[in-house]
Amino acid sequence: VNMKAPLLLILTVWLNTQYGGCALSSSCSVPPSKWCSSLDSAIQCGVLKQCLESNFTRDHKAADPIEVGLYYESLCPGCRMFLTQELLPTWVMLSDIMTVDLVPYGNAQEKHDGQKYTFECQHGEQECLGNMIETCLLNMTQAAFQIIYCMESSADVIKAAQSCVTLYDPSLQWGKVMNCVNGNQGNQLMHLNAVKTKDLNPPHQYVPWVTINGKHTEDLQQKAMNSLFTLVCSMYQGSKPAMCGGAKRHYKSYCDKE
Ligand SMILES: *[C@@H]1O[C@H](CO)[C@@H](O)[C@H](O)[C@H]1NC(C)=O
Ligand SMILES: *[C@@H]1O[C@H](CO)[C@@H](O)[C@H](O)[C@H]1NC(C)=O
Fold first, then answer.
1. Which pTM was predicted?
2. Which helix (H) or strand (E) holds 68?
3. Is 96's pLDDT higher than 60?
4. Which end of the chain is more exposed for a tag (fewer CB within 10 A), N or C?
5. Domain that holds residue 54
6. Are 232 and 97 in contact (CB under 8 A)?
């Protein structure tokens, strides 16, 4: 009796389960093109892992995008850093699975003064101006995120504004932006930012203050500050985009040389 035969059989079955089908078991009766067509055939043909993975990267199961809210003020150094180094780069890479809501107001104070509101900002008049320019841009142009990124990554946020607008939305006249900034439109929009910020629950204690799907916890804040990219990828319930690295994870099934 050849004692090696059962051992070889066991090894084959083991390899099959371990390495997802280097050795095909005899119950695989469908052609390779159909291996992934059902869970049963994938298991029978020992290619379950591969099928799951290829389905994973091929079919983009859609889910609600992750909503990232940022409550900030235009001249706060921590806000500028988060906006330029975490939020905007993440949005550029993951815009398929996330939305961004920028609320420039932060620790400002609002007073009702007749028909208008007046605002006082933590870092002075210039910050109020920066907040107002950004608020108007968010209302006026599709390129607002790019322009705000450009402003916040410049040495002088306010001075950079006009050239950032020219760069990212040449069709938008600076005069129009300033009409909004100095007029009733900007005043009303900033009031909405004030209301939105005051309505935060829990109330914000510092800026940048991050919300994820409308929610703020210390844990989410910490994770967002460490790597918003990782947080958004991990929270997204649909099929992860290739950017998230899901496609790269399983390529370590080898068939050893005997
Ligand atoms: C792969 O996707 C197809 C179609 O979406 C599905 O019918 C099949 O069951 C999936 N296979 C596996 C192994 O999940
Ligand atoms: C701009 O603001 C006005 C209110 O002043 C609002 O009705 C409109 O929907 C806003 N547009 C955008 C694109 O946010």
1. 0.72
2. strand 66-72
3. yes
4. C
5. 32-60
6. yes
Distance 13 CA to ligand 1 centre (A): 24
Residue 10: both structure tokens together: 């066991």
The preferred substitution site among 102, 139, 179 for testing ligand 2, maximizing ligand atoms within 8 Å of CB, is: 139
Q: Whose CA is nearest to atom 9 of ligand 1?
A: 38
Give me the long-range contacts of 38-47 (CB less than 8 A, separation at least 24). Answer: 45/21, 46/16, 46/17, 46/20, 46/21, 46/22, 47/20, 47/21
CATH number for the domain spanning 161: value is: 3.40.30.10
Query: Quick one: pLDDT band at residue 227, thresholds 50, 70, 90?
Result: very high
CA of 189 to the centre of ligand 2 (A): 8
Quick: pLDDT tens for 125-178.
999 999 999 999 999 999 999 999 999 999 999 999 999 999 999 999 999 999
Q: What is the rounded distance in angstroms from the CA atom of residue 65 to the CA atom of residue 146?
A: 20
**Are 55 and 120 within one domain?**
no
Question: Which residue shows structure tokens 């059902």?
Answer: 38
Indicate if 138 and 115 belong to the same structural domain: yes
Residue 8 within a domain: no
Burial class (CB in 10 A: 0-12, 13-18, 19+), 47: buried
Tokens representing residue 97 in the block: 């699975």
For residue 191 and ligand 2, the question of a CB distance below 6 A is answered with: no
Determine whether the shortest distance from the Cβ of 139 to ligand 2 is under 6 A: yes
168 C-alpha vs ligand 2 centroid, how far in Å? 20
